[in-house]
């Protein structure tokens, strides 16, 4: 019986074995194909990185070789430096370096890109490169040369020893100390050398993308946890401070130190508030909850939010942006001074549209942008500013505003809102020079909401 059963089952077992072998082979082939594709992408990105940094070094040299009074040549060179630096950043992002400390090099390249961009968009006929900026360009050239040589060394080892980037990814993902990996060691050396460079003068405002708001620059005294309890209780309309828990944040970094105040809510989410340690300024307030329906419109939400801000000492604020999502209105207010909108001083307010309760405030921009300003008179008239826009733009409103331009400088502008080609635009014309500083597109539904509010 068993012999007969074996004879019957044997062909099926053989077929199953062959099928398993074929399946395993195909899976192995598919895995190898994916690995080869990933390896090829890594290799391409690495060699592109080496090429772009080499070209960056060459372009910096050519830019420095021309006379500083030659505006077209300098502008062309700086644009090429910005383009090549941005490409090098893109190449780095395609490599498996997330677990490898390479942040110093990435930050240096980002600063180079930002510096060259800011210089290239500047009107050099009125503001030519200063001696300090030329010195920065020379230092960038020297550092680019050193980075190029180090990357070439790594590239030579990769080619000579047929090194694989997949091994780097596996080694980094294992989270174990890695020894004798030429690629990892090479990139670690590059980052260490870049980190040892002395700080460069990147120019005023050119590092705004990378700098963090430093609470140590704020006026006022250092707050204690008890001080914050009292502030939170006062903000909540005289709430019992004993029910509020305060947690200190920031650790040993003074520039990030803050306090979080938490008030437990019965049957709902806790109320959270963040205050700066220096001065005790409210950074944000959150009272999250589900808003099931919309009973009120944006105009009513705006009025409630405006009154709420006024009660909490955010004076002379005007709504500049409206949005609605999941039955919650998000309204941005900016400071108004002498009929001028000051966009660097902004507060965002969330209002539930079922009962007009304020459920959130974000005041970071207001805290770090709040200061005394002397607003001068515009040199360009409103009529002259309108001539700087397209004749096809159908203007609906015009006013004065202070914004931050691409150099992170505050400038007085004519704010012109108009419609063209089915879109609504907000155009900022410099009130001193008549040049366009910025153009923003406004969503039609947002503009409609703003008009109704």
Structure description:
The chain is α+β, with helices and mostly antiparallel strands. The protein has three domains: about 180 residues; about 150 residues, no CATH class; about 70 residues, Nuclear Transport Factor 2, Chain: A (Roll). Helix content is about 45%, strand content about 20%. It has eleven helices and twelve strands. Strands 1, 2, 3, 4, 5, 6, 7, 8, 9, 10, 11 and 12 form a twelve-stranded mixed β-sheet that branches. The chain is globular, with a radius of gyration of 30 Å. The N and C termini lie far apart (about 90 Å). About 0% of the residues have low confidence.
Helical content class: 40-55%
Average pLDDT confidence is 81
In angstroms, what is the radius of gyration? 30 Å
User: Can you count the helices?
Assistant: 11
Provide keyphrases for this structure.
alpha+beta, 21% strand, 11 helices, 453 residues, 45% helix, 12-stranded mixed beta sheet
What's the topology here?
Blueprint: H1 2-65, H2 71-93, H3 103-121, H4 131-161, H5 165-173, H6 182-195, H7 225-235, E1 245-249, E2 258-263, E3 271-276, E4 282-286, H8 298-311, E5 317-325, E6 328-337, E7 340-352, E8 358-362, H9 364-369, H10 382-387, E9 394-404, E10 410-420, E11 423-430, E12 436-442, H11 444-452
Parallel strand pairs: 7-9
Antiparallel strand pairs: 1-2, 2-3, 3-4, 4-8, 5-6, 6-7, 7-8, 9-10, 10-11, 11-12
Helix pairs in contact: 1-2, 1-4, 2-3, 3-6, 4-6
